[in-house]
Amino acid sequence: MRPIASPGTQPPTGRPAASGSPLASPAYPGASADAPQALSGLRILLPRLRTPDALAEGLERAGATVVRAALTRTVPVPGQRGALEDLCRCLVTGEAAWLVLTSARTVEVLASCLFRQLEQPPHQLPSGGHSRDLPQRNLPTKVQVAAVGPATARSWRNLVGRPPDVVAEGSAQALLHHPVLAAGPGASGSSAGGSDNPDSSLPGDTPGNSPDVGRRVLLPASALASPVLAQGLRRAGWQVEQVEAYTTVPVAPQDLPAGLLASWQDGRVDAVVLTAPSVTRALLDLVGPPPPPTRTVAIGTTTAQAAREAGIIVDATAASPTPAGVLRAVKEAARHSAQAGGRTVGTADAVEERRRTLTGDDAMTPMTPTTTPTAPTAPAASRSTTGPAASTAPRPPAPDLLASRGVPAPVAPTVRPRRLRSTPAMRRLAREHTVDPASLMQPVFVREGVSQPQPVEAMPGVVQHTLDSLRREAVACARAGLGGVVLFGVPQERDEVGSQAWAEDGILNQAVAAVRAEVGDALVVCADTCLDEFTSHGHCGVLRQDGPRAGEVDNDATVPLYQAMAVSQAEAGAHMVSPSGMMDGQVAAVRAALDATGHDDVALLAYSAKYASAYFGPFREAVRSTLQGDRRTYQLDPANRREGLREAALDTAEAADMVMVKPAGPYLDVLAQVAATSPVPVAAYQVSGEYAMVEAAARNGWVERERVIAESLLGIVRAGADVVLTYWARQVAENPGWLAS
């Protein structure tokens, strides 16, 4: 770990170290926020490592001790390398009108891609990945470059040796108002004369360039980037090709500077600058929410909104994400704190922030609408008069209109249900259902033979864990207050009968033992009791080899294998086993095997109403399924509701401790009826397809991700689920604001 200055040492600048919370100290109110030492004695966390960093230098000149720590790291987006290579090829060959860059990180990712395109190894270039010696003759000379902010522009100049053609100050949305881009392709402003760089030229519809090239905009960006910029450019007529160049994930806890966590939790960090929504999420993951003495400054409105949605009070938001703009916001937060003497008696803005956090009634900040060119309005004299003339007479009030037609005035209602929706507190009081993190279970995949977690491309944010990362995930789930985890194994070797499923050293049994050893009884450790991940053919049981039914799953030959699997899972330490193969008699057989081997305390979660659903598709990638054919001869027909009720009743009669409906969202009618009649708790599995659809829609900006997640879970609970298995379980538990609103 990297050391940071401790409270008892002198900061590097020689200023006295922070003591308690100087933001609220009696000595501070007399200081001017505009004075050179306006931040004297304050300790400020700046969660990034950038050299040089004008913001860090400005904070230090204002008297602050700056603690710099990277909370996120950049990783490739699975499945996007080919698209990124194509983008760089188009950039090198000039097959586009514009390249739009929104961050310095994007430039860094492009650098290595360009090196490959130009066959120039990165190790031949200056350290840090920036090249002032990259041969300009090999770089695109016709593709114009637009950059957001001076840091992005500086990174691009360091890479290619010349500045971008357009540099927009502020947020990415500022590019939409630049005359060259706002006018769209082919407009008079979209020419060399409209560029900020006099040496540039626009491809347009010149010889050798097709019209599509003149309209084409290359937009590499983070996978977490807002879609607003791409949407605005498309509205202006550009053909935007957005590529997920990278994504950001939290760093490992051991990579944080030594002492940072203790200083943070003790309130010895006076302020933090949130530099991106992903940094906000990483901050919560790694060190937790800001304690009461710590002020929070957001670099822009998007980051401020993400912080508020995560339950963080934002004390100041920079009007511009430039170093000067952020520095002004930090000084403003310090001045308000000094004047108020603490967070609880703030300015009107601070009081409003507190109210929003307490009530969960944080409204989204409306975005400034992006205007698009419209056809000019014709003069009145030239308008068509072929249709009926529009009336210029004033319209009568609605009551007069109704009275003239003999409609009686409505009687004022005595019963007014809206009374119970009048305030956030009233809505909370009258709320019929809530989602409790203790009733959520996190499905987790663990893969044999890998040294690092492997992303599941069809399920963004989900990985196949190693045993080590699985242990960390289990600890995080326990700390978040989840009810349990459900473990799925992904073995290296498979055979016809799935023998690795009950092997003591099989990956699933190793995972059960590892999690149980790590968290004990803090979580319910549940193991998936099915053979599909372990068989070479991908079915949930053994196949008949001979006769007219060859190739069919043999029900009665499969059930003893489930018994062996359940007993081995219990011996590994599972609190609960979950037969999910939909074999007749599986629950009774597994219960008998557990009881016979002294595991009568191990609970049984029965996948009772498991339908042959197309929503399982992404899961099969997660377990590297080798399925041949389909499972319609043993999973339920999606058209049948009564059959699901019958299966749940049979499993209850066979001593299931809990029954399940799977999938959840498309089968809420089945879930409701099972819950209405079941004498045991009812679980519902929000499956991979439900997860993937929401994530895809959110990435395209079509839905509000957190609200849709919360609403979908609430719908499952409202239908009657006592327990919900969902891939969002830990995220929801760690972000209570999602459910509160």
Automatic annotation (TrEMBL):
Alphabetized GO MF terms: porphobilinogen synthase activity
SUPFAM superfamilies named among the record's database cross-references: Aldolase, HemD-like
Disordered: region residues: 1-32, 181-215, 335-412
Keyword annotations of the record: Heme biosynthesis, Lyase, Porphyrin biosynthesis
Biased composition (Low complexity): 16-32, 182-201, 360-393
Pathway: Porphyrin-containing compound metabolism; protoporphyrin-IX biosynthesis; coproporphyrinogen-III from 5-aminolevulinate: step 1/4
Source domain of life: Bacteria
Location of the Tetrapyrrole biosynthesis uroporphyrinogen III synthase domain: 53-177, 214-326
SMART domains found in the cross-reference section: ALAD
UniProt-listed InterPro entries: 4pyrrol_syn_uPrphyn_synt_sf, 4pyrrol_synth_uPrphyn_synth, ALAD, Aldolase_TIM
Keyword Lyase: yes
Coiled coil: none
Enzyme class, UniProt record, top EC level: lyase
Description of how the protein assembles with itself and partners: Homooctamer.
Family the entry assigns: Belongs to the ALAD family.
Known function: Catalyzes an early step in the biosynthesis of tetrapyrroles. Binds two molecules of 5-aminolevulinate per subunit, each at a distinct site, and catalyzes their condensation to form porphobilinogen.
Protein name in the entry: Delta-aminolevulinic acid dehydratase
The gene coding this protein: hemB
